[in-house]
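Please, structure for the following, as tokens.
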Amino acid sequence: MENRVPTKMVEMTMKLRERNNSMNRLMRWLLSTFLLSGSTLWADQFHYNNLVVGERAMGLGGAFCAVADDASGLIYNPAGIAFALSNDITGSANAFYKKKVTYKKTIGSQDFTENSGGTLAPFFGGMQKMDSLLPGLAFAFGLYSIDSELKDQNDLIENIGTLERFHRTTNIRGSTTGMGAAVAKRIFQSASIGLSLSLITVDELVQEYQDVKYTDARFVAQNYRTQLKGSGLEIGFGSQYAIGTWSFGLSTKIRQVMSSEYQVALDYHSNLDPATSQLTDLFAIFTNTTTDDALGTMPTEVRVGTAWFPSASFLWSFDVIHHTKTESDKLPKLFNREAVTNFATGAEYYITPSIPVRTGVFTNYDTRPKVEAGKLGQADHIDYLGYSLFFGWVQPNSQVALGAIYQSGDGKSQKINGAAIQEVEAQSFTFALSVTHSF
């Protein structure tokens, strides 16, 4: 008996195949038409030093692993709080953050610039010595911002070649925050160990509209919305050892994603044929998808530091910070990261017994792959170098610090859909006021 495939099944298979082919043609066309890439719209999960937090740590550029003797030891090395001289409450009363990214010669010979910023309180915490319970025991808690971005941008470009009008509005609200506690114990006069536990939350919302019109009546209009929500646990282990005028620190943070969700909604209208980019009947696409476990894994951090205290008025510190590679098996794999090693060094000098000056230098390398010729849809890759400068005013029971952190970066991008690669320059500024009360 001859096997026959039912006619309706053949028709359904052919329709599905034609639908897939059409979608593939559409995706190839979207990568070549004039639309600013959405691959870099989310807030910055791919640099680990966007915000340096902690009263003294900010001034030292984050080189604090071998010191960590205030409440921010929760972040840098929980073992350090065992060496604190007093109890304290610390808060960054106000911080102003601004970032500018310039894509060179993106639209013809014109540069394209994106700006973001905002105000935030990057750290609030406290530390309590608990020698009455157990000699050498200390406890700390903290609320802190790891990353924050606010963007409200409106761009209008007109009359460039066959491009009659390009209008784009973008609104981004993104934050990564931590909340945790740490406990430390001096096991010898010159050595301590510490443990920390933090809850990390991520919330990033992007809403964008793009409208493109050409001189021959072709047009593209799209509304694009994404939201990433996630949470994870972070367990930190630290140790610190002091000998003579030197101190050495080692800390490890192991992170585990508890939940994550990435939503994408696209409403797209055009009169361009995806196969030929020529005029055709109006067609529309609407998609609304949700991906669970989008973050996959979170990076493990290993921090090694040393500090030198040659006198009561001078301190020098140096940290090496390594983050492991992370990846997710779930498409679209937007949040995969490469392994990266950053460096930080800082110095503190008391001009007078009441006025310290702190300065630091640190790297903030991108964890996304470098942009390569011949590939499409690549994300930005920008490596930053940062500088910090803070002045303090110290009284017996209080300290105030005021200063700024500046970061300058460069790299490459594919800002416009297609194979063209643009040079990128970026700068960010953070102005902060920090207040500490000791008791």
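The helical segments are 7-30, 55-59, 73-76. Residues 7-30 form the longest helix (24 residues).
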